[in-house]
Every structure is written in structure tokens, then in C-alpha cells.
Amino acid sequence: MSSYTTNVPAPSFGDTGFVVPTEAAILAGVQADQLAAFGSDLNTGLTTPQGQLATSETAILADCYDQFVALVNGVDPAYASGRMQDAIGRIYYLTRIAATATTVTATCTGLAGTVIPVGAQAQDQAGNLYLCTEAGTIPSGGSIDLTFQGASTGPIACPAGYLSAIYQAVPGWETITNAAAGVVGRDVETRAAFEARRAQSVAGNAQGTTAAVLAAVLAVPGVLDAYVLDNPLPVTSGAVVTGSLSGTTLTVTAVASGALAVGQMVIGSGVAQGTAITALGTGTGGVGSYSVNLGQTVTSESLTCAQGGVPLAANSLYVAAYGGTAAAIGAAIWSKKSPGCGYNGSTTVTVSDDGGGVYTAPYPSYPVSFQIPAATPVKVAVSLRQNMSVPSTAVALVQNAVLAAFTGEDGGDKARIGGALYASRFFTGIAALGGWAQINSVLVGVGSATQASVLLRIDQVPTLAAADISVVFS
Description:
By secondary structure, this protein is α+β, with helices and mostly antiparallel strands. It folds into 5 domains: 12-74, no CATH class; 101-177, no CATH class; 206-232 and 312-370, no CATH class; 239-309; 374-473, no CATH class. The chain has helices at 23-38, 49-74, 82-91, 191-201, 210-218, 326-336, 394-407, 427-431, and strands at residues 12-14, 17-19, 101-110, 115-116, 121-124, 129-132, 136-137, 143-153, 163-166, 173-177, 223-231, 239-258, 265-267, 277-280, 288-306, 316-323, 342-343, 347-352, 365-370, 374-384, 420-422, 439-446, 453-455, 460-463, 469-473. The strands form 8 sheets. It has a 6-stranded antiparallel beta sheet with strand order 9-5-6-8-3-10, with no helix packed on it. Strands 12, 13, 14 and 15 form a 4-stranded antiparallel beta sheet that branches. Strands 20, 22, 24 and 25 form a 4-stranded mixed beta sheet that branches. The longest helix is centred in the first third of the chain and has 26 residues, at 49-74.
């Protein structure tokens, strides 16, 4: 059998995967082969016919290698995208989420006892239709908050007060409005978001863990975000205290219940959003001083200190879910939670349990409670250097870049329930707009944009509209 040799360097498998030679190295190898075949007098200049053949062969080999690199990377979840990522997802019985619709919490008013059914229709000021995702009965107070989801998918903004018309009349239902902006929908799930969901779904094979409950809830159609926390202790978590804030020092003068701990958020009428205990001072859970992350001045008042900002009942599970139907969320929680645990939250549904076919009708039924987090508008303030290259569309371009980062459409992590939102998250998208986008500062916050980062409570789902993104040039 004949053996063949070539001066073209071969690809190899190394610690970092499939390693291919550079195009310059391939070209040099092809030219060396030509000289070996036709003699050292051959002119291998790239402008000659043989030079053209060499560059064509180099391009063919380089393209072949590139395709194989893409194939090899495609079987690694860390790098897979497109069709290869879809294939990996199917191993876990997952498919890429199609475009989702904007979800908004709306206040419906009318006659007490009026039932607003699932599918009830409302319309925003731009003519977009929204459908009610949970049935509700208007109480004696005359109003009820219900979740509505856009009839069309995609990142359709619904600012506060924008959902203002009843499209399909329901006798007794008189008005509708949204106090806070909706959680903006999105286009087809990005590579990064799909991989994050695949990683979370692995926990769905477990039972009785918070990760398993979270995976099950996130798998409910229409759920845009969720958060799960438990309290295994036989007492209510967190603490209710009387205290004041001076700079970054929290001084507690009385404890009504519970104990303080590092990591707890501090909630009070005058306390800045995202304030959290960072270190113990003279206090070790009770009366005394503690360090917090945000400097401020707050006179003595009643404060709640708890992980995520929400005290949990003894031996209970906390689930926050935004989007989807209440019945499906309740069923998902029931399918993964441990027997005997209590619940937290203001939304309660009844779940029937057939025991996987063990029971016969009538099936035992159980109340399952969870929290629909409040849509919480985030503010972003962007300051850019004024220069001659700034285009007339600069403000809109910056706002779109910030929105893409906030929703994760840029391929990064999206803003989430109970998460920390950093102003630096928006730097890359803004800077990528061009050399004219010279950043002076970016600040974020709830209520006003004054912080380098802001921490959301676990009963808050962050929202952002273009109107909440200020862009100034100086």
C-alpha cells in the first residue's frame, strides 16, 4: 500500500478540543507541496495560476476544518448553538421556547361578585390585545389584580397605565389599568437562555428540593420567571424590629420577633431598595448595630429583615412565579414539593392528586399557595460624553441596547426575581453602538436611578420600559 505525505499541517485533538492549523500555515504547506511536485524553480506567487490554485485549496481545507470545529463544539453544551443545541435539549426532553408575550398585572374594577374569566380581553393604547391568564372575582372592595398576557408575542412594551380598555365586555367589569409596566415578552429563546434553562432542568429529575420545584415551575408554559425558597425551621424566618439607619450602620433598639442575620434584606417605608445586612456589629441577632450595603439616613421605624425581603412561615415553601396559569403553577409545585410542608403567598389553587394512577376518583385535593410577584419598574440613567459623532437616533439606540441587556436578548443573563441588577451589565451593549458611545456613567435603581446596583426582593419581578431609561449627553 502506497503512503502519501504532505507539508500541510494536520489538525489534532488537544486539551482544548479540536485544534486546526491557521490558514497561513495551510497555505505554506500547500505551496511547499507544489514546490516538491514541480521543482524549486516554480513561481508560487499568489498572482500566478499556481498561486490561485494554492489559495483555493487553502480555502477549501480551512472551510472543512471550520465546519468540523463547529460540529465538535456543537456537542459541548457550553458552546452549542442552533440545531446542535436543540438536539442537546431534546436529550432532556426540552425544546427551545418560542417567542413569548408581554405579561402585565392589571387592576380590574367593577361590581362586587363579578367573575372575570380566563381569556377575558383587554387592549392597550397601541391596540395590542391582552388575555387574562387567571380567573378572579371582584371582591367587596370593588377591584382585583389579575395577570394578563399579550395575544401577540415579542418584546412589546406595556408602560404603566397603558392597558386601559376592556376589549370584550364582561357584565359588571367596568375598568382596567396597570399600575406598573408589564414584563416585556421576548423573541425566540437565545442560546444563553436555553442553556441556562437546560442546566436548571436537570434538577427537575429530583424530588423535594427547591431546585426541583423551580425547574418544574419554569417548565410551565407562559411562566417568564420564578423563584423558590424554603424555611426548614419551626419558626417564622426573618425578624421584625425597631431600628434606624445612619450611613451604613443599622441600629436596632427593639426586636418584636425573630433574629437578624447577615444577608437579610432590610425593608421599611424609608429604606432604600436593596438594602441588606453585610456584617454583624454589636448586634448578634438582636438589639445592637449592624453594617448594611447602602448608606442612608432613616429615623427609627418598624423594619422587616428577611432573606429576599420576605419572611416565611415555619416549615414552609415559598414560590414566586410570574406568567403562566395559576392552576398549572400549582400543579407543578405539588408535583415536586415534599409532603407536609406549608406554603406562602397570596394566590391559592386546588390541586387534585391521582397519585400517578394509584387513586380512583374522587381524588384527594389540596390547596397550594404561591406568590405572584409585583411588577417593579427599574430606572436606568445613562450619561454619555457629548461629541460630534453622536447620531440623531442616539437616545433610541441606547435605550434599545439597555432593553436588550435587561431582557437577555443580547445573549447575557436577564434581570430576574430576587436578583441583583448591576449597572455594568449595560456597558457592553452601549459601547458596541460605536465609537460615539463614550460612557460617563450608568446608574440603576427602583424609584430613581442612583445606585451602581440594585437588589430585587423575591416578591418583585423587575420591569423596564424605554420611558424609564434616561439618556443624557454632557
